[in-house]
Amino acid sequence: MLITMRQLLDHAAENGYGVPAFNINNMEQGVAIMQAAAKTRSPVIIQASRGARTYAGDKILQALISGLVQNWPEIPVCMHQDHGNSEATCMTAIQHGFTSVMMDGSLEADGKTPASYDYNAAITRRVAEMAHHGGVSVEGELGVLGSLETGMGDKEDGHGAEGKLSEDQLLTDPAQAVEFVAETKVDALAIAMGTSHGAYKFTRQPDGEILAMNVIEEIHRRLPNTHLVMHGSSSVPQELQDIFNEFGGEMPQTWGVPLAEIERGIKHGVRKVNIDTDNRLAMAGAIRKIARTQPSEFDLRKFMKPAAEAMQQVCEDRFERFGCGGQAETIKPLSLAEMAQRYRSGALDPVLG
């Protein structure tokens, strides 16, 4: 069953868990996510970037996710646009069945130039007004994703800040977060605190100097009823790095976001946790293993089935670690029309303080 992000995150907040948001590009990834969700009885956010929409095509993605929802009708699924860069990107996502969109106004429409606060607030507010009329949820972002070690932005699927960033840009200001949520009326707020896209997040085990979990805690203190989002939150497990490298990969030693830190975030208002690299790495390692150990194999299915199984294991682990397990059957879905009525009544306006 398709539901909105707002309904899912409200339920997560009421029951003290976090929801992994897994990126999707093809059928095997979708099946892996849903099999993991069914096994653990978990609700899920399936999200597609602009890059994924270009790669697979909007109509194919829409049909794929519709098929997944029909095949597993007992699982609540939010279909989310990841890192929308404009009103048009968000609107076309809604037109193709997305029940939630992210308007990432932290960067300008080119997807690489850090934007001003005024630009970000104005465009995010316009998208929220537009989407809420149809009952669709909206995620905004304040602060720019990037490394506190290097001061550089990150780039994934053609999206990410370029060049050196100041600490003010790399860390979301808690006081400004209160202003932003009040002004835009977003349903969830992605914050910057040292995480980044891709596998190469940290050159060492992250500590408070390069992963500022205290920012999450302070924003949650000021906005206890706002759903927070951690982007770039793959953990890049050592065992997945080792498999990838054992069978011909060349990944230098790297560190991701420790699961213990994500669990810490969930205790302080993080309700949506974006994960993509871990799944890519699990699939790539499995494919490399088949290619290396069975060099005569050319049946694509013999590569993709183990790859999907490896990804499913990652998804199952995250569902359980974040507290999603067993929550699927406790959610009673609301239609977009019902959600739109709640927005119109003011029942879903942000609760500040």
Short synopsis of the structure:
The protein is an alpha/beta fold.
Kindly describe this structure:
The chain is an alpha/beta fold and 353 residues long. The chain has one domain: Aldolase class I (TIM Barrel, Alpha-Beta Barrel), CATH 3.20.20. Helices cover 46% and strands 12% of the residues. It is built from 14 helices and eight strands. Strands 1-2-3-4-5-6-7-8 form an eight-stranded parallel β-barrel, surrounded by eleven helices. Helix 9 links the parallel strand 6 and strand 7. Helix 5 packs parallel to helix 6. The longest helix is centred in the last third of the chain and has 22 residues. The two termini are 33 Å apart. 50% of the residues are buried. The model has no long low-confidence stretch (mean pLDDT 95).
